[in-house]
Amino acid sequence: MFKKFDEKDNVSSVLQLKSSVQKAIRVKLLESYPHLENFIDVVLPKKDSLRIIKCHDHIEIIVNSNGELLFFRQRDSQWMPTLKLFHKYPFFLPMHQVDKGAIRFVLSGANVMCPGLTSPGAKMTDVPTDTVVAIMAEGKEHALAIGKTALSSDDIAKVNKGIGIENCHYLNDGLWQMKPVK
Amino acid sequence: MSVEDKLKQGPRDGISYPMQVVYCGNCSMPIEYCEYYPEYEKCKQWLEVNLPSEFEKVKIGDDNPVEEEKKRQKRGGKGMIKTKKKEDGPKQVYVSRAPRGKKKSVTVVTGLNSFDIDLKVAAKFFGTKFACGSSVTGDDEIVIQGDVKDDLFDVIPEKWPEIDEDLIEYLGDQKR
């Protein structure tokens, strides 16, 4: 999604959000990430005025008043956290761990293939399809990508072929490189 | 921490959030991923200078990485991460004067971008400093209303210490 993303070319406008919309987003986030409940006031303080960055390809990014990028989504999909945010609160997404061999492919933006999730170095949590997951790596502590499952965990183990997780946001992609927006 | 625990959701006891993650200054990723960056050597240099303790850990981790890499033939394409090319052009700020009407002139400053300076902020700063209009007019161009070139040579190095006075060049009068 952000492979060829560039701050200069792809951002079309920055908007201040209405407080009612802000509340709606909070509720939605809590709905999709119940583990965030105790921390939502730190991540999205009630008094903070959020902004939204609209980009090409129907991508929207939530930004807090300091300009930090928090969540993004494409069209009307679920909000996904940016890696910078997830590194700070690395618990509110289900996690899939890929084996060592897959790391460099994921870091260049490839989708995660099933064999990379079923080999001995890999681990999965049990989730259905279309779930936002954090992609961790064998022997590493931090997440290296955020993705959306294309198959449920059971199917991944059964089929063991093709795309398992769609890579949405990874280290060093356009969104990661983006500087805080003023 | 066992592997099962690692993938567990929910905040863990004994850790205060937000967590602080150390990022590499060269490749901007968490340090543990530096080894997958094409310019790993540069990352190592950065680590050595900025975080010597982490550098020691990395050193112990790989004992004979150089030989291993030479054996394998490397071609681009297969899982190679491309480095974002940083433009390392000549870092220089150009100042010039352009006429505005018969007896007034404006000062054009270009090249601030190469120092990673936010042009909008810079324009605002010039405006307040010289009490005049100042605006970002192009990709890397600030126009300050009025002839302030003499002051600029003092003001720019003062505000941004990384710009030395010798790096500012005066191009003379230019047509608009």
Automatic annotation (TrEMBL), chain A:
Name this protein carries in UniProt: PUA domain-containing protein
Domain of life: Eukaryota
Spans through the membrane: none
Family: Belongs to the MCTS1 family.
Species annotation: Phyllotreta striolata (Striped flea beetle)
Domain called PUA: residue spans: 94-172
One GO CC term, this protein: cytoplasm
The keyword Cytoplasm is assigned to this record: yes
Gene Ontology biological process terms from the UniProt entry: formation of translation preinitiation complex; translation reinitiation
GO MF, any single term: RNA binding
Presence of the UniProt keyword Cytoplasm in the record: yes
Keywords recorded for this protein, A-Z: Cytoplasm
Alphabetized CDD domains for the sequence: MCT1_N (cd11609), PUA_MCTS-1-like (cd21155)
Span of the signal peptide: none
Main location: cytoplasm
Subcellular location: Cytoplasm
UniProtKB/TrEMBL annotation, chain B:
GO molecular function, a single term: mRNA binding
PANTHER family: DENSITY-REGULATED PROTEIN, DENSITY-REGULATED PROTEIN HOMOLOG
Biased composition (Basic residues): 72-84
Region described as Disordered: spans on this chain: 66-102
Protein name according to UniProt: Density-regulated protein
NCBIfam families in UniProt: DRP1 (TIGR01159)
InterPro entries: DENR/SUI1_TIF, DENR_C, DENR_eukaryotes, DENR_N, SUI1, SUI1_dom_sf
Family: Belongs to the DENR family.
Span of domain SUI1: 93-160
Source organism: Phyllotreta striolata
An annotated GO BP: formation of translation preinitiation complex
